[in-house]
Amino acid sequence: MTVRTLLQSVTDAMKTEMELDDRVVIIGEDVGRDGGVFRATEGLHAMFGGERVMDTPLNESGIIGTATGMALYGMRPIAEIQFMDFIYPAFDQIVSELAKISYRSGGTYTAPVVIRTPYGGGIKGGLYHSQSSEVYFAHTSGLKVVTPSTPYDAKGLLIASIRDEDPVVFLEPKRIYRSVKQEVPDGAYTVPIGKARIALEGKDVSVITYGASVHTCLEAAAMVAREGISAEVVDLRTLSPLDIETVLKSVEKTGRAVVANEAPKFCGFGAEIAALIAEKAIDSLRAPILRVSGFDTPFTYTWENVYLPDAERVAGYIRRSMSY
Amino acid sequence: MTVRTLLQSVTDAMKTEMELDDRVVIIGEDVGRDGGVFRATEGLHAMFGGERVMDTPLNESGIIGTATGMALYGMRPIAEIQFMDFIYPAFDQIVSELAKISYRSGGTYTAPVVIRTPYGGGIKGGLYHSQSSEVYFAHTSGLKVVTPSTPYDAKGLLIASIRDEDPVVFLEPKRIYRSVKQEVPDGAYTVPIGKARIALEGKDVSVITYGASVHTCLEAAAMVAREGISAEVVDLRTLSPLDIETVLKSVEKTGRAVVANEAPKFCGFGAEIAALIAEKAIDSLRAPILRVSGFDTPFTYTWENVYLPDAERVAGYIRRSMSY
Amino acid sequence: MKESTVMEKKTGMLQIIDNEGNYRRELEPAIPEELLLRMYRTMATVRKFEEISMGLQRQGRIGFYIGAAGQEACSVGSTAVLKKEDWIFPAYREPGALLLRGETVLQLFHQLFGNSLDYNKGRQMPNHFNSREKNVVTPSSPIATQIPHAVGMAMGAKITKKKEIALTFFGDGATSENDFHSGMNFAGVFKAPVIFFCQNNGYAISLPTSRQTASETLAQKASAYGIPSERVDGNDILAVYSAAKKAAERARNGEGPTMIEALTYRLGPHSSSDDPTKYRENREVEEWKKRDPIRRMAGYLRKKGYLDDESDRKLMDDIDKEIRAAAKKAEAVPKPPVESIFENVYSSMTWNLKEQMEETVGRYGPGYTGR
Amino acid sequence: MKESTVMEKKTGMLQIIDNEGNYRRELEPAIPEELLLRMYRTMATVRKFEEISMGLQRQGRIGFYIGAAGQEACSVGSTAVLKKEDWIFPAYREPGALLLRGETVLQLFHQLFGNSLDYNKGRQMPNHFNSREKNVVTPSSPIATQIPHAVGMAMGAKITKKKEIALTFFGDGATSENDFHSGMNFAGVFKAPVIFFCQNNGYAISLPTSRQTASETLAQKASAYGIPSERVDGNDILAVYSAAKKAAERARNGEGPTMIEALTYRLGPHSSSDDPTKYRENREVEEWKKRDPIRRMAGYLRKKGYLDDESDRKLMDDIDKEIRAAAKKAEAVPKPPVESIFENVYSSMTWNLKEQMEETVGRYGPGYTGR
Ligand SMILES: Cc1ncc(C[n+]2csc(CCOP(=O)(O)OP(=O)(O)O)c2C)c(N)n1
Ligand SMILES: Cc1ncc(C[n+]2csc(CCOP(=O)(O)OP(=O)(O)O)c2C)c(N)n1
Ligand SMILES: [Mg+2]
Ligand SMILES: [Mg+2]
Questions:
Q1: What's the rounded mean pLDDT across residues D78-89?
Q2: Looking at the structure, do residues D302 and D349 belong to the same domain, yes or no?
C-alpha cells in the first residue's frame, strides 16, 4: 500500500498494466517526454520507450483512429485526450467507429480502446478547459463510460477498463487529481465496471452523483447531518452501463432522490437517473426528483465557482427535497 | 395554398427566404446541380446560381466551419449535412464553435447558421443512414434544435430558423419526407421556435413526441381510442428550447405521461422530458413515466422495423400506463 | 489511348497495357499465369455480381447496391500483391479484394440480404463487406474513417515487430475528409507500413474531382505528409499491380507508407439511389467504356496466350451460374433471430439491453426470424 | 546569420534584415516611417505586456498567461498590410494584431482579469482577445477551428462582392488538425481571399515540428490544396511584411488564398503552466535570443535613422508606464454581475436559464460582483 493521489493512481494503473501486458500502449499529445500536461504519464516514456508511449501530432481523430486500428490488430491502446473539451475533433471516430465496430461486424471485430481524458471544472480553465460532456458518450451505445472519485477506484477501474473487451471512455475528475489522497495497493487489482458504491450510508434522501461531485455531495451531507438529515451518497463510478440496482435500492429505501453533477442540466446525465427512477420507483417517492447541476450555459471563467454546484447548493437541494 | 410534402415545404422555405433575403445561401455536399441526395435543394441552383447554392468538397467540418465564418460576416447560411449520421466530423465546429461563439465573445459576435439534416430510420438505411442523435445537440447550450412533423410546420419552422439570431439544428424526419402531404401557404410565414403543438387532444394520457414519431403516436392513439382510451399527443416541434409549459399542462391534465421517440433510450431526449415531469409535476402523476424509444443499440438494417417503435409498441406503453 | 478531359491532367501516370491489351514489355510485371487468371476471374465476377445484384435491387429483393463496374482493376490489382496475413481496410467498392482472397460470392450475398449467415448479422446496408477470416476489416459508411485504422494497424505491426502491412482503399472525395489528413500525417510521422490506395473515379457522387480540390493531382497531396506517391492508370491491372508491388516492398522494408492515385471511372451510378445523368455527360461514360479494365485485361491475356474465346466464354458461364445459384441460396436463408439485435453492443449484455430484448421477444416470440 | 538546427531545413526562406538590422536594399519594402515606428512600438508593447502579465500570473492576480515573446514580428508584420475593414481570425499569440489595430492595452487587461469591461464578459481564459470593433474575431481554445471561419468569411466577401479579405493565424501544430485541412481545401476550391499565416515556432507544446509531420516544410502543405505558399523568416519584420503584402494583393485581385510559413520561436514557455526544460535545450533558446525580432527591428530603425538611444529609451518608458497603469486600472474593475452568466447563450433568455438565474440571484443577491 502506498498513499497516492488520484493522479498518481492513474499513472500507477498504466504502469502496472504495461508491465504485465505488452499489448498495452499509450498514445496522445505530449504524453511522452513531457509526461502529459497533467503529468499523468510521467516516467512512463523513460520506462517503456517511445514505441509504447507515443507522442502524436496534434490531431485527436488521428489519436483515436490509430488507437482503434491498433486495437483491431490485437493491442490494448490507452489514448489520452488532453482535455475533454478537445475530444470533439475525434467524435466521429468515437461514435461512428469505436463504439460500433463490434456491432456492425457482428462481433467479428472488437476494439478495446481506453480513452482517458481529464474533465470538469475547478482549475480556472474557463470555457474550454472545464467541460463535462459525459452524456454524449453515455448516450452512445457500444461505449462504456467510467469515472472514479477516489485514488483506489481510479487505479482499480482503470485497470478494469484496460482489460475490458469493450471501448471505455475513462473520465478523470481533474479538480481532484491531487487533492484526494488514499492508501492504494501496489500491483494489479480491479474495481468492477458497472458497480456503484455507497460513499455514505443514509436513510432520508439519496444523493446520486459521480466524479468530483462525490466530494461536494459528501460535504453537503455533512452539512445537512448537522440539521438531522441523513443523506445517502451514491457514487455511480460507471455511468454506462449504469448500476441501476444500487440506485433503485437506495431510492426505495429513502424515498427521496437528488441527482448531482456539474454538467449542464438540460439533457444531462442526471436526466437519465431521474427518468429511470420515475419509471421504476415512482411509488417509493415522497418528493419530486431534483437535479442539481451546472447551468445550461457554456462554462465560464470568472464565475466558475458560481457555475459549479458547491456543497451549499447541493445542501439546498437536499433540504428542498426533505421539506417537500 | 399548395399541397406539399414535407420535403417540398423544406425546399419552398429555402426558396422563399432566398428570394426575400440576399444573405441567405446554401452550402453542402451535392446540393447544387444534383439537387441534394433527397432532392431538398432541387431547382435552387438553377434559380440562384452556384454562389448562393454551393457544392462543397466532401468535408462536414468544412461545411459548418465556413458557414460559421459566413454567418460571422453577416450572412445567413443554411448548411446541409447529407445524413445526420455524417454530422459527427463537424461535431467540434458545432459544439465548440457555433454553439459558443455568442457566449464566449460576450455577445459581440453571433453566428446564425441553420444546419439542416435528415434524420431517423424507416428508409432501410441500416446502421449509418438512420440515426437520431438529437440529444447530443439538445444538450449543447447555445444551439436550438427544431424538428417538424408536418409540411406546414416544416416550412414555417424553417423560415423561423433562418431568421433566428441563434444557430439552429433543423432535423428533418426523412421517413415522412414524402408520405405526409398538406395544404401549405405560398410565400413567407413562420411557426415560432419553442412552441409545442397539441397534435391530438385527449384526457387520459399524454403522449409526448416529435418528428416522424408524431405520426406513429397518432396511429397508436387511434388504436387505443377504440379501447376507450383518450390519448393526448403533444408534438414538441422544438426540442431546445423546450416548451415546458405545454408539456406540464398536458400531464397535469391527464396524470399520465408516455414519451415516445426513436433514438436510443439511455440518456436520450425522452429522459429530459421524464426528468422535468418528475421534477415539476410529480404530484399529478397517476402512473410511472414511461419511455418508448429505439433500443440501446446502434441502428440495424435487417430489423429496422422491430427497432423502430411502431404504433403497436406505442399503444402497448399507453395501455401499460393506463392500467397502472 | 485518347486523353480524357476529366481525369488526366498534365501530370503523368503509369500505364502498361492499352485499350486493346497491347503492353509495354519493359514495364510488364512478372505475374504467374495462375494468378493472372484468378485476377481476371475475380474482376469478371465482380462485374457479374453487380449486374445481378442491381437486378435484385430493382426487383426489391435487396434494398440497395453500390457498384464497382469500371473500377475492378483497382482492388484486384492491388490486393494481388499482398500476403494473406496482410490487412485490408476497404471502402464499399472493393468486393474484388474479398473475392481474390477467397471469400465466396455466397458470403457476399448473405451480406446483401442481411440474413443470419451474414458476418454482420444484418446490421449494415448492402456492400459493407467484412471478413475477419480474410483480414478484410469491417467497413462503415462514413467516408475515410478506415484510413486511420489502417495506419494504426500498421503502427501496431511495426511496434510489435511483425511483418504485416496494411492496404486501405478510398475515393477521390475521401481525400477531402479529416481522416485522410490525420491518417496520412500519422503514417508519415510513424513511418507506418501502409498503402493508401485512392480510386480517383472522377466524382464524389455528383462532385467532379476538379471541384473536390484545387490540387493538380491527388497524388501530390502525399507530399504534405512526406509520403511518396504514384499515379497510375486505374483501369490497367498491370499498372496497378506494379505500383502496389513497389509500395508493398517499401512497406515491408521499413521504408514507410506510399500513396497510389489510380485514375479510374465508375461506369454505373454512384449507387442504386443515384441518377448520374444529373451531373455527367453520356459522352464521357462512353469514352470510359472503351477503357474497360476487364476488356483490357482480356486483351492482354489473349496476347499472352492465357485466354481464348472458348475459355473466356466458359469462364463467364461458370461465373454466371455460380452467382445465380448463390443469390438463390442466400435469399432463402432466414433473417437473424430478433434476439440478435441486442448482441455485440457489449461483450456481455447489459441490463437495459436484456430488458429491451425481453420485451421484444415477448412481442415477437423467441427466435423470431420474420417467418 | 547562423543556420539553426531546429528550424531551417534545406528549403529556403525569405529574409531581409539580419540580426544586427542590416538589410537587403533590393528587397526592402516601402513602409512609411510612421507605420514602422507604430509597428515597433506595438512589438515592444507586446513584449512588455507579457513580462508584466507573467508577473501578475505568478502573483496569482491573473489565472494564466500564454505568451508571444519572440514571435511579435509575425502578427504585427502581417497585420500591418491589412486595411481596417479586413478581418483577422487569431489564435492566442497575437495580441500584436489587436494593438496595431488600435485596441488598448487596458482592454487586453480587462480580458486577462475577466472583469465586467472584458468584451468576453469573463467567460474565457486569459489571452482569448476578441474585438468586434477592430474586426478581430473571437478566438477559442481548440486548435485550428478559426481557420475555416476565416475561409467562410472570405467566401462571403467574395460572394457579396466586397473587397474585404481575411487573415488567420495558427501554429505549426495546427497544421495537423482537421480544420487546417478542411479550411485550406475549401479556400483552394472557392478561391477565397484569405491569408493563412502559420507561425512555425518549432514546437506544439512539447512536440518538435519534426515529429509533427514528415513533410519537409509546412509551406509545402499548401500545394495539396492548390494554394501558393511562401516561407519567411518570422523574426524579420520586413520579410513578414513583404510576404503578407504580396498575399494580400493576390487576395484583393481575386487570385485567391496564400499560405505563409513563418519560421520563428517562442522564447518563453508554452504557457504559464508549462515547463519547457522538459523538452528543449537551453542552448537552443539562447541561439534564438540572438534573433530577437524586436532587437532586429530596432537595428533596422537605427540604420534608417528613425530611432536612437534616447527615443528608444523614452518609448520603452512610456510603454512600461502605460501598461502598469492599465493593469492597475483593470484589476480594480469589478467582475461582471452574476446575472451575466446567463446572458448571450441565446439571443433571448430561455425559461430554464431564467430559472437558473433566479436561483443564483436568490443566493448571491442581484448584481452580485463578488464584493
Ligand atoms: C462523412 C460522410 N459524408 C457524406 C457521405 C455521403 N456519401 C456517400 S459516398 C459519397 C461520395 C464519396 O466519394 P468518393 O470518396 O470519391 O468515393 P466514390 O463513391 O466515388 O467511390 C458521399 C458524399 C458519407 N458516406 N460520409
Ligand atoms: C483540439 C485541441 N487539442 C489540444 C489542445 C491543447 N493544446 C493547446 S496549445 C497546443 C499546441 C499548439 O501548438 P501550435 O499549433 O504549434 O501553436 P503554438 O502553441 O506553438 O503557438 C495544444 C496541443 C487544444 N487547445 N486544442
Ligand atoms: Mg469518387
Ligand atoms: Mg508551435
A1: 98
A2: no
Q: Which of C72, C143, C147, C211 to mutate to test the pocket of ligand 1 (most atoms within 8 A of CB)?
A: C143
D342 shares its domain with D321: no
Q: Is D201 in the pocket of ligand 2 (CB under 6 A)?
A: yes
Confidence class for position C1, pLDDT limits 50, 70, 90: very low
Ligand 1 site-directed mutation target among B56, B59, B82, most atoms within 8 Å of CB: B82
> Which fold is adopted by the domain A2-184?
Rossmann fold (3.40.50)
Residue D187 within any structural domain of the chain: yes
Examine the predicted complex and report whether its ipTM is higher than 0.90: yes
- Is residue D329 within 8 A of residue D109, CB to CB? The reply is yes
Residue D371: which pLDDT band, with cuts at 50, 70 and 90?
Answer: confident
| pLDDT at C11 > cutoff 90 | no
Q: What is the spatial distance between Cα A8 and Cα D8, in angstroms, rounded to a whole number?
A: 40
> Rounded distance, CA A263 to CA D247, Å?
44
Instruction: Report the C-alpha gap between C287 and C1 in whole angstroms.
Output: 10
From the centroid of its chain, how far is CA D26?
29
Choose the closest CB to B91 out of A91, A268, A270. A91
- Catalytic site positions of B: 129
Give CA angle at D348 (A320, B141), nearest 5°.
65
Spot the catalytic one: D128, D266, D291, D296. Answer: D266
- Catalytic residue list contains A129: yes
Cell of D134: 477592430
Are residues D123 and A302, on separate chains, in Cβ contact within 8 Å? yes
| H helix count then E strand count, chain B | 12, 14
Nearest-CA neighbor of B67 among B97, B32, B36? B97
pTM for the model stands at 0.98
Residue of chain C with shortest Cα separation from B83 = C142
First and final CA of chain A: distance in angstroms? 45
**C241 shares its domain with C308:** yes
Is residue A273 predicted with pLDDT exceeding 90? yes
B197-322 has the same fold as B2-184? yes
Protein residue whose Cα sits closest to atom 19 of ligand 1: C204
> In the predicted model, is pLDDT for residue C6 greater than 70?
no
pLDDT exceeds cutoff 50 at D3 = no
Which of chain C's residues have a Cβ under 8 Å away from the Cβ of B30?
Answer: 205-207
pLDDT at C239: 98
Report pLDDT digits (tens) over B71-82: 999 999 999 999
Rounded CA gap, A172 and D265, in Å? 33
What residues have a C-beta under 5 A from ligand 3, the ion? C 171-172, 201, 204
Over range D26-40, report the average pLDDT: 98
**Count: domains in chain D:** 2
Q: How far apart are CA C78 and CA C100, in angstroms?
A: 10
pLDDT at C177 over 50: yes
What's the mean pLDDT when you consider all of chain B?
98
Q: Check CB contact under 8 Å for A279 and B274.
A: yes
- Tell me the three state secondary structure of residue C171: strand
| Mean pLDDT, residues D273-287 | 96
D92 lines ligand 2 (CB under 6 A): no
Asked whether residue D4 is domain-assigned, the answer is no
Mean pLDDT of B285-290: 97
Question: B107-142, pLDDT tens digit by residue?
Answer: 999 999 999 999 999 999 999 999 999 999 999 999
Of B57, B104, B141, Cβ closest to residue D189: B57
Question: A195 CB near a chain C CB, below 8 Å?
Answer: no
Q: Which residues of chain C does A144 touch, with a Cβ-Cβ cutoff of 8 Å?
A: 346
Cell numbers 471478413: residue: C131
- For residues D238 and D128, state if they share a domain: yes
Nearest CA-CA partner of A216 in A288, A317, A84, A82: A317
Q: How far is the CA of C263 from the centre of ligand 3 (A)?
A: 10
Cβ contacts of A245 on chain C, cutoff 8 Å: 351
Residues of D in Cβ contact (< 8 Å) with B143: none
